[in-house]
């Protein structure tokens, strides 16, 4: 501050020495912030003892310094003083130009890192106009400034929260406000604003929060008296507006009216184009997002219909449909699935054959369930989203891959794939069938439903309603000269007995079962009164599996685990008599953590990785089966022979950098 005091005293004593004052100022600008310097120079220019030439010099210096540092408001204020005190046309022209480009001031917080100037920003602004883009988009493209840095600058300038709308939408943190849908989309696009509910608050996201009069008018039209303002980028707002309206039409007159609970609805009303397009667009969006299920959940108290998608095993909210469209949507789904529209008291099941606009065809399994307040829920399972994979693509560790190939090459016997619903059993069995599918083999499959179609297989869809059960189809297969048989699921005692019989009469039989682990499968089948001698003789192997979330390959970040994390890894892996988890294995491991990017919808995970345990019984384990030994005894002997549990397999995949320990623990028990 001493230098500044010295300068002020020098000016007061030598007010005419403009050259020396200029040199002094250049030196000061290196040591003091522009804000401090501008403040003291303006205060100095107010002193009546200074000659007018010195006042004008100081004010011109302040205006140029403010303009150079993108403090355009300060520059405008200073030129106003100059114009009033020293009327000149050059000041008037300068003032008009600065007013035109005042909005560029909001990028001044980027100055410390990027060499921005008003001239450069003007040039980029004109380029943005030519390309019909926002200047923020051009800054990101031309100068490689990140969106986060631009939003931070806007936040600091406007003193308002600034959000990446694209990220918030992808993370499903925003909810539409149904009454806003009555306003034309064009109005929101013209005013570059969009309202959403977030964290139990209403936000109006705007591109230009400085036009207070316009914002007040928008709030009145959108019926949002209590609303929080937030800033977002132009392109993000336009994309959000598009998504806001993509599930409905702008013309509210075409929407169906609210229906009283006991009122009968005609099919014609239910097939209103708004409802048809609404349901179709939600199904298409679910398919695009690789969802396995769509949950339509009727909210109590006439709050509408919540739609959730299950992607990679996890549910998230997609949208809420207004109350007046709820009954229409559920009835439309029932019509598509050939269900009784009038029956709302009992559960119903059906199927839909669906074709997207892109020409993709798939089947949807539909289940309706009555809920309180005379409502209904619908769950749709998308059956066409299963990827057809080969044996090399199902994430088997090398040792398990060799084990599976070994049992598949055997001429006859029973191979079981076990795990809960949605654990990838069908994908694994079809990978096995792809390996076995040769011109010299006759392969029959019975499935409910047929989810993957393979050339060369003879595939049958079971239909319990007409008595075409797994057991009946299996018996017919035995008369159709098969080499290999695949039964989609072993549901009952009759099917289990026929499976064993088929495997003992020279057929390779594959099937699935809902059990937790490979050793527990043995006790489960023995509980179905299967002859232990026949079972031990026929069993070739049991594959148990789970699906854990896979780290996104685009954004996963390597990191060094803490000693506590390494200790937790060892504890979870447990002791293994033959293949323990060594310090050397951990040292060589590749540890990654999730980050989140556009590719993975900012979750940090993309797709899933299969965890396996493969039990191939030898003579010792077959003896235990014959003795009907408990599962823990079978597991103990299997471990001594090199067997890996599901959790151990998952931890080895953590060391490979494919997933995280948290994800493995979320899907495994022991």
TrEMBL record:
Residues in Bacterial type II secretion system protein E domain copies: 272-665
Which keywords does this chain's UniProt record carry? ATP-binding, Nucleotide-binding
What are the GO cellular component annotations?
plasma membrane
> Which Gene Ontology molecular function entries are recorded, alphabetically?
ATP binding; ATP hydrolysis activity
- The reply to whether ATP-binding figures as a keyword in the UniProt entry is yes
The record places domain Type II secretion system protein GspE N-terminal at: 181-247
Source taxon at top rank: Bacteria
Cross-referenced Pfam families: MshEN, T2SSE
Tell me the protein family, please: Belongs to the GSP E family.
UniProt-listed PANTHER family: PROTEIN TRANSPORT PROTEIN HOFB HOMOLOG (PTHR30258:SF1), TYPE II SECRETION SYSTEM PROTEIN GSPE-RELATED (PTHR30258)
User: What is the protein name given in its UniProt record?
Assistant: Type II secretion system protein E
Q: Which organism is it from?
A: Caldimicrobium thiodismutans
Organism ancestry: Bacteria, Pseudomonadati, Thermodesulfobacteriota, Thermodesulfobacteria, Thermodesulfobacteriales
């Amino acid at each position: 501050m001493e230098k500044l005091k010295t300068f002020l005293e020098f000016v007061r004593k030598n007010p005419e020495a403009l050259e020396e004052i200029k040199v002094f100022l250049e030196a000061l600008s290196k040591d003091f912030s522009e804000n401090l310097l501008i403040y003291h120079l303006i205060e100095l220019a107010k002193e009546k003892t200074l000659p007018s030439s010195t006042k004008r010099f100081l004010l011109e210096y302040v205006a140029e310094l403010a303009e150079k540092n993108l403090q355009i408001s300060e520059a405008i204020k200073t030129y106003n003083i100059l114009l009033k005190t020293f009327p000149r046309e050059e000041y008037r022209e300068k003032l008009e130009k600065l007013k035109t480009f005042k909005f560029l001031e909001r990028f001044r917080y980027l100055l410390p890192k990027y060499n921005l100037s008003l001239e450069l920003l003007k040039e980029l602004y004109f380029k943005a106009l030519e390309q019909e883009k926002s200047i923020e988009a051009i800054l990101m493209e031309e100068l490689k400034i990140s969106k986060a840095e631009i939003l931070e600058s806007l936040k600091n300038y406007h003193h308002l929260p600034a959000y990446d709308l694209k990220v918030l939408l992808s993370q499903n943190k925003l909810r539409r406000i149904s009454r806003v849908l009555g306003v034309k989309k064009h109005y929101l696009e013209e005013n570059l604003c969009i309202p959403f509910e977030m964290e139990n608050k209403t936000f109006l996201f705007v591109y230009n929060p400085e036009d207070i009069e316009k914002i007040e008018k928008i709030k009145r039209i959108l019926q949002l008296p209590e609303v929080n303002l937030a800033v977002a980028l132009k392109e993000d707002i336009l994309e959000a507006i598009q998504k806001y309206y993509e599930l409905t039409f702008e013309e509210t007159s075409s929407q169906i009216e609210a229906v009283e609970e006991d009122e009968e609805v005609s099919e014609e009303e239910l097939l209103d184009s708004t409802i048809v397009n609404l349901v179709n667009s939600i199904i298409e969006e679910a398919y695009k997002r690789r969802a396995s299920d769509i949950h339509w959940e009727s909210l109590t108290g006439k709050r509408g219909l919540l739609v959730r998608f299950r992607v990679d095993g996890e549910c998230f909210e997609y949208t809420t449909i207004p109350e007046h469209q709820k009954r229409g949507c559920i009835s439309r789904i029932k019509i598509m699935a050939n269900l009784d529209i009038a029956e709302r008291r009992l559960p119903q099941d059906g199927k839909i054959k669906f074709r997207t606009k892109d020409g993709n065809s798939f089947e949807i399994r539909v289940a309706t369930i009555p809920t309180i307040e005379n409502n209904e829920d619908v769950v749709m399972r998308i059956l066409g989203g299963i990827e057809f994979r080969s044996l090399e693509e199902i994430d088997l560790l090398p040792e398990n891959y060799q084990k599976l190939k070994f049992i598949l090459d055997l001429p006859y016997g029973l191979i079981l794939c076990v795990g809960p619903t949605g654990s990838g059993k069908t994908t694994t069995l079809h990978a096995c069938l792809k390996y076995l599918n040769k011109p010299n083999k006759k392969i029959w499959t019975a499935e409910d439903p047929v989810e993957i179609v393979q050339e060369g297989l003879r595939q049958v869809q079971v239909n319990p309603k007409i008595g075409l059960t797994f057991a009946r189809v299996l018996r017919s297969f035995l008369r159709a000269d098969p080499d290999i048989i695949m039964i989609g699921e072993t549901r009952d005692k009759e099917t289990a007995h026929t499976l064993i019989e088929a495997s003992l009469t020279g057929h390779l039989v594959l099937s699935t079962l809902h059990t937790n682990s490979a050793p527990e499968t043995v006790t489960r089948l023995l509980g179905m009164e299967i002859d232990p001698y026949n079972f031990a003789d026929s069993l070739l192997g049991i594959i148990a599996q789970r699906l854990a979330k896979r780290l996104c390959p685009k954004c996963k970040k390597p990191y060094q685990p803490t000693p506590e994390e390494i200790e937790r890894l060892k504890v979870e892996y447990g002791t293994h008599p033959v293949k323990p988890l060594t310090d050397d294995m951990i040292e060589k491991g590749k540890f990654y953590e999730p980050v989140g990017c556009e590719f993975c919808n900012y979750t940090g995970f993309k797709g899933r990785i299969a965890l396996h345990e493969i039990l191939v019984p030898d003579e010792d384990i077959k003896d235990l089966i014959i003795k009907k030994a408990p599962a823990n005894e079978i597991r103990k002997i299997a471990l001594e022979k090199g067997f890996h549990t599901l959790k151990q397999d998952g931890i080895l995949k953590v060391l490979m950098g494919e997933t995280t320990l948290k994800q493995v623990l979320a899907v495994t028990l022991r």
